[in-house]
Automatic annotation (TrEMBL):
Organism: Enhydrobacter aerosaccus
Biological process, per Gene Ontology: methionine biosynthetic process; methylation
Cobalamin-independent methionine synthase MetE C-terminal/archaeal domain location: 175-388
SUPFAM superfamilies, sorted: UROD/MetE-like
Pfam families in UniProt: Meth_synt_2 (PF01717)
InterPro entries in UniProt: Met_Synth_C/arc, UROD/MetE-like_sf
Protein name per UniProt: 5-methyltetrahydropteroyltriglutamate--homocysteine methyltransferase
Entry keywords, A to Z: Methyltransferase, Transferase
């Protein structure tokens, strides 16, 4: 994994806006009106273009934009997660919507996840969440979600092989030596119905065993693997009533252990982990503080950690690194531009944010990044402007730090 040895390098969190042609190809394939060959043709061109645009914008470590993760509309906050439904065996589509799973209540020492609709932030701001003019949206709601009904297996070999082939060809065409590809983490993967495994912990380990095959495929291809597992932080909002920080850490520890189980034996310096509190444009007043989970994050066997640090709910948490020791062999990718606003950050502000982290953990261990994926969350023109200002801010910070 590259380090910022002579300047601040740039990357991002994964998802980038899809071109209309790819969105339409996805929509037609999902409706059975187009074959796989038509989709793959659109995907090949889309990945080639998105890597070229990242390089032109000044991104040093590009991704494939998560283009192989099906997204049939311009606004979509869950493609990073729902793609796994097509790559796992043992699932059955049920007539349940995302918000229809049973409401479960926690108690001290007995923390359980409730339904998506029972999130504390959603309950507190129910009027805003139900108002179509409030700006809180995640795109079209799915009416059917999967339930695990048998042994979980990985069936996405052809899909991940195609994703890797498209991306490597695009990297080579643009002379890029290092790129990253995202894959869902076990804790997030397991946030579906379970009618087979005896416990939530058993289910999350089953997800770890299944998804390990995808992790290995990405690393074996010579790419950087990024684990997307927002459930590590985001679950806190989906527990009702609010648990203590200690109870939440106990609840989350088996999920960290499952992820490390999936990563066992894989080269740590080829893995980065993305932490976030959920990318929807809501108030986020019930997010768990970074200070309460940073220790859990650092237990993950990854060489770098990506996290939200640019949006107004979490920007102040740069100060956590004043008294948190970053292990000597690790890097950080703080978000210095945000998915949560249409305002394009000024390059001077981006440089200021980078400088805070560089002074605390060392300039060579900071890679400038985004809070979360930009694709499906802000307009494509705004997303690309944010990547450009990210690179401009990194250039300013580099002059200040070297």
């Amino acid at each position: 994994m590259r380090k910022s040895s002579d300047r601040i390098l740039t990357s991002h969190a994964g998802s980038l806006p899809r071109p209309d042609e790819l969105i339409e190809a996805n929509r037609l394939r999902e409706s059975g009106k187009a074959d796989e060959q038509t989709f793959q043709k659109a995907l090949t061109q889309g990945v080639a273009d998105v890597v070229r645009r990242q390089v032109a914008a000044g991104i040093d470590v590009p991704g494939d934009g998560e283009y192989g993760k099906s997204m049939g509309s311009k606004v979509n906050y869950r493609a990073w997660w729902s793609y796994s439904f097509q790559r796992l065996g043992g699932l059955k589509v049920a007539g349940l919507g995302l918000y229809d799973f049973p409401v479960r209540r926690s108690s001290p020492g007995n923390v359980v996840l409730s339904s998506f609709g029972d999130r504390r932030d959603r309950l507190r701001f129910a009027t805003a969440y139900s108002d179509p003019e409030s700006g809180i949206t995640t795109g079209p709601r799915a009416t059917d979600w999967p339930v695990c009904v048998g042994p979980l297996t990985y069936t996405g070999q052809a899909a991940i092989a195609a994703d890797i082939a498209h991306f490597k060809a695009a990297l080579a065409a643009n002379g890029v030596s290092e790129g990253f590809m995202t894959s869902i983490g076990p804790a997030s993967c397991s946030r579906i119905g379970n009618d087979y495994y005896k416990s939530d912990d058993e289910f999350v380990f089953a997800c770890a065993d299944a998804m390990r095959e995808e992790y290995k495929a990405i690393i074996d291809a010579g790419l950087i693997l990024q684990i997307d597992d927002p459930a590590i932080a985001e679950n806190f909002d989906q527990i009702n009533p609010e648990p203590t920080a200690e109870d939440y850490r106990k609840f989350t520890t088996p999920k960290i252990e499952a992820l490390n189980h999936a990563l066992r034996g894989l080269p740590k310096d080829r893995i980065r982990f993305h932490l976030c509190w959920g990318s929807w444009h809501g108030p986020h007043t019930t997010d768990i503080p970074m200070r309460d989970i940073v220790g859990l994050m650092l237990k993950i066997e990854a060489g770098a950690y990506s996290f939200e640090a640019g949006n107004v709910r979490h920007e102040h948490e740069w100060s956590v690194w004043k008294d948190t020791k970053l292990p000597d062999d690790r890097l950080i990718l703080p978000g210095v531009v945000s998915h949560a606003t249409n305002v394009v950050e000024h390059p001077e502000l981006v440089a200021e944010r980078i400088g805070r982290f560089a002074k605390l953990v060392g300039r060579d261990r900071v890679i400038a990044s985004t809070d979360c994926g930009l694709g499906g969350r802000v307009h494509r023109d705004i997303a690309w402007a944010k990547l450009e200002t990210l690179a401009q801010g990194a250039a300013i910070a580099s002059k200040q730090l070297w």
